[in-house]
Design a protein that fits this description.
This protein is of the alpha/beta class. Among the domains are: about 5-40 and about 235-310 and about 440-485, FAD/NAD(P)-binding domain (3-Layer(bba) Sandwich), CATH 3.50.50; about 120-230, no CATH class. Helices cover about 30% and strands about 25% of the residues. It has helices at about 15-30, 65-75, 95-100, 120-130, 135-155, 170-175, 185-190, 195-205, 215-225, 235-250, 295, 305-310, 390-405, 420-425, 470-485; strands at about 5-15, 35-40, 45, 50, 65, 100-105, 110-115, 230, 255-260, 260-265, 270-275, 280-290, 315-325, 335-340, 355-360, 370-380, 410-415, 430-435, 455. The strands form four sheets. Strands 6, 7, 13, 14, 15, 16, 17 and 18 form an eight-stranded mixed beta sheet that branches. Strands 1, 2, 9, 10, 11, 12 and 19 form a seven-stranded mixed beta sheet that branches. Strand 11 (about 270-275) and strand 12 form a beta hairpin.
Length: about 475
């Protein structure tokens, strides 16, 4: 076949938020940018007037105002911040409901609402863990102290703008005194009950994309406390990505749908080539930004780059199940964002741990009147995908849901797993829980944003423990690095 060559300054492979932010900043600074998206991949599922958006972590459902400001300023998009507080309609609500609940954790014998207001949260802990109150208060005082150290580090003149990421030379960090303890959170939780240990682990896992076993104690403090009082539920990830994509196109960026990528080669003397399966076209660019899960792209890379990708591996896939349910089936006190574990003695997979997101009450853009869209994310060993029918796997998930929602079967209007069977095998599917070695430096990240001279990585693997914040930071960092070259 006769080859046709498409030359670009920068190619982005994949269409997540990190790549969109990097591409928009580069296009804004006169770089020619081409975004290659996989044909047929659908990040959103609309069916029978329900709209479902799969998610990887809770931070995709509760965006921080500070992050929105950072993206808004970088891209010159004031609309990202949404309406100001004084412009929002006022309504009479109880003093308790004014304290925003960020997440609800359900254990076999406890249900804890996590509020941005610390006193309310402390009351929850005293109710559910009465025998450990003194220990818990001591732990939270220690985490508060670590959070103060982090704030102090952020306030320094030479602090990284990408907090809490380190800034400065290798030698400076090698010979500097590190005031943060090396202890892992798992070690610190050793004296506590199984229930409280799991309560902390589930929170850490819910906010990021990393299995919580190897979390450093300062990192846990940052994730558990940082920014909970500035969470913004008025702007969701879907709207944010749409706004950034529109700005990318307005700045001259281009988008093209492609099939399977055959090979990524460093043959061209000034950059790279991307060739496709069964097509004569070849895309050529000086820089390549990878914005798809690395373990799915690594077969296309050379040996050295594959070695970098081995630093982090998926330990679970997050499989979505979509339910349309009536309002009346939702238990009193059930949160809109929930993480639940059914059995403390069993592994997280096969429906034992569920992440739940309920569409806002009365939002008819997400569900018909009187009903709500329930997105349920459960965990599966990646190696088990395709070994058994999805219906068999779904039984464990439904068993867990019946425990959470009594009489569920009488109030379900829709149960849909077809989206998962079609979309999960695609290269663009991005919902994974990762595992990293215990010795990674959490202030430098797991995967460097620069993989080689011309190849950059943005996405969940750079700073998986920071959730959506990590994706945004990686996009900003990659754009900054390319603009300096």
């Amino acid at each position: 076949m006769e080859r046709s060559v498409d030359d670009q300054g920068v190619i982005i492979l994949g269409s997540g938020l990190g790549g969109l932010i990097a591409g928009t900043l580069l296009a804004k600074n006169s770089h020619g940018v081409l975004l290659l998206r996989e044909t047929g991949y659908q990040p959103v599922h609309t069916i029978k007037a329900y709209r479902f958006v799969p998610f990887s972590n809770i931070s995709e459902k509760r965006l921080k105002a500070g992050l929105l400001r950072k993206v808004s300023q970088a891209l010159s998009l004031p609309s990202l911040m949404g309406p100001k507080e004084e412009d929002k309609p006022t309504q009479r609500i109880s003093s308790r409901s004014t304290q925003r609940e960020t997440l609800q954790v359900i254990l076999p014998k406890a249900r804890i609402d996590i509020f941005s207001e610390r006193s309310l949260f402390q009351r929850e802990c005293k109710r559910e863990f009465p025998k450990e109150v003194t220990q818990i208060e001591e732990l939270y005082r220690e985490l508060d102290r670590l959070q103060d150290l982090l704030k102090s580090a952020k306030a320094k003149k030479r602090a990284s703008p990408f907090f809490p990421i380190l800034k400065g030379s290798f030698f400076k960090h090698l010979f500097s005194f590190d005031r943060f303890p090396k202890e892992k959170m798992g070690q610190r939780l050793a004296p506590f009950s199984k229930e409280f240990k799991e309560f902390i682990r589930l929170q850490l896992m819910a906010w990021g994309n990393l299995h919580p076993e190897h979390f450093a104690t300062p990192l846990a403090a940052h994730i558990l406390f940082q920014g909970k009082d500035e969470l913004n539920s008025d702007v969701d990830l879907e709207k944010l990505e749409e706004e950034v994509l529109n700005e990318f196109l307005r700045r001259g960026g281009k988008v093209e749908e492609i099939g399977q990528v055959k090979k990524i080669e460093q043959k061209w003397r000034k950059g790279l080539t991307v060739s496709l399966e069964g097509e004569p076209r070849v895309f050529r660019s000086k820089f390549l930004i990878l914005n798809s899960p690395l373990h799915r792209i690594s077969p296309l890379l050379d040996k050295k780059q594959k070695g970098v990708s081995k630093k982090i591996e998926p330990c679970h896939m997050m499989i979505p199940l979509f339910l349309g349910i009536h309002e009346k089936v939702i238990p009193v006190g059930m949160g809109d964002l929930v993480i639940s574990i059914l059995d403390l003695e069993k592994p997280y997979s096969d429906g034992n741990v569920l992440f739940l997101s309920l569409s806002p009450r009365g939002d008819e853009a997400k569900a018909p009147g009187g009903r709500r869209a329930l997105t349920v994310e459960s965990l599966m060993d990646p190696e088990k995908w395709g070994q058994a029918p999805l219906a068999d796997y779904q039984k464990g998930v439904m068993h867990h849901l019946h425990y959470l929602f009594p009489f569920l079967e009488d109030h379900i209007e829709l149960v849909d797993s077809e989206w998962a069977s079609k979309q999960v095998p695609k290269r663009s599917y991005s919902h994974f829980l990762f595992e990293a070695p215990s010795d990674f430096d959490w202030r430098k990240g797991v995967i460097p944003t620069r993989m080689s001279k011309n190849i950059y990585v943005v996405g969940k693997e750079n700073f998986p423990y920071l959730g959506l914040e990590g994706e945004i930071l990686s996009g900003l960092m990659v754009a900054k690095q390319i603009l300096k070259t």
